[in-house]
Design a protein that fits this description.
alpha+beta; globular
């Protein structure tokens, strides 16, 4: 039997079409159940960095289930699928005259409490987090093997050799590589099929996240960062919310200031022509040693709508 499903594509972490990070959202009615294999085939058909399968609202007020797939497998959480899906739900409710402001999603990593502002089109999500700074670090030699053009651009820590590996949730690892200069260093990052660091089997998603910190007074009180994410199999990602969360949690923890909220504005995708803007607010707990809350926010814009047959 042929099944027809509706889908929408949005560009996320932007309000300008054909910039930001594209996302496909496939609507799954209550009576339809798709196998993992079918979801994977659909994700490969879209061939985007992620595809979301959004299960229909059952009218009970419970969190809406979302399944997040790359072309290679399912993810427990991802940032731009979360923000894109929230924008889709919020804008659809507005079109129906309902103007939903509070939204709950349920992904494999846990519950996501979120708000959608109809005036600004900004979705803000308190993400499930299980932040872990791994004991091992990626070596400078391994980074240069993958990125030889960065020989004179790596920002080195005299106290801790190499670069930290941080997980925002279990099953996702990002190697945080700080560079020296915004205009010179980031453009030298290149696509590479050589992994920066080999994790143990079954570790899940692993990718390097290159970044530069700089000062602009456009948003007082917010730390400004520009970044690039290169994944050996997928290539470059225009906006990586989960990596932004890993980086900002790591940076906030370095301050060791109990009960403090740190605000970060990350620009990504500039060098590939898909500029994106990601906002993250990280609150440190009363001990100063752990993360209490992480809020990821951003905008999105509708690009296409259609149906597919499976």
């Amino acid at each position: 039997m042929t099944i027809t499903l509706s889908f929408t594509t949005v560009d996320v972490f932007t309000d300008v079409r054909f910039t930001g990070n594209p996302l496909a959202i496939v609507n799954i009615p209550q009576k339809i159940s798709l196998s993992q294999e079918t979801k994977q085939k659909i994700a490969r058909e879209f061939n985007l960095s992620e595809t979301v399968f959004l299960h229909e609202d059952d009218g009970t007020g419970k969190a809406r289930k979302v399944d997040i797939f790359t072309v290679n497998g399912e993810l427990p959480f991802a940032g731009h699928p979360t923000i894109g899906t929230l924008h889709f739900i919020g804008s659809q409710s507005e079109a129906k005259g309902q103007s939903v402001r509070s939204i709950k999603l349920l992904c494999k990593a846990g519950l996501i409490d979120a708000k959608y502002d109809h005036g600004t089109s900004i979705a803000a999500a308190e993400i499930p987090h299980d932040v872990h700074i791994h004991g091992t670090r990626a070596s400078v030699e391994a980074v240069l093997q993958s990125q030889p053009r960065l020989k004179n651009d790596l920002h080195l820590d005299n106290e801790l050799p190499g670069y930290p590996i941080v997980s925002p949730v279990k099953g996702m690892q990002f190697i945080l590589i700080r560079l020296k200069d915004l205009k010179r260093s980031l453009p030298r990052v290149q696509l590479s099929h050589i992994p920066v660091h080999q994790m143990e089997d079954g570790a899940g998603f692993v990718a390097p996240y290159f970044y530069v910190m700089y000062n602009h007074e456009t948003k007082p009180g917010w730390t400004q960062i520009e970044s690039r994410m290169i994944e050996p199999e997928m290539g470059e990602d225009p906006a990586t919310g989960s990596a932004a969360c890993a980086l900002t949690c790591y940076l906030a923890l370095q301050h060791k200031l109990p009960g403090t909220t740190f605000k970060y504005e990350i620009t990504q995708g500039v060098d590939m022509g898909r500029e994106s803007h990601i906002s993250v607010e990280v609150t440190i707990d009363a001990t100063g040693a752990m993360i209490e809350k992480v809020v990821l926010s951003g905008t999105a814009v509708l690009v296409t709508q259609g149906t597919m047959r499976i």
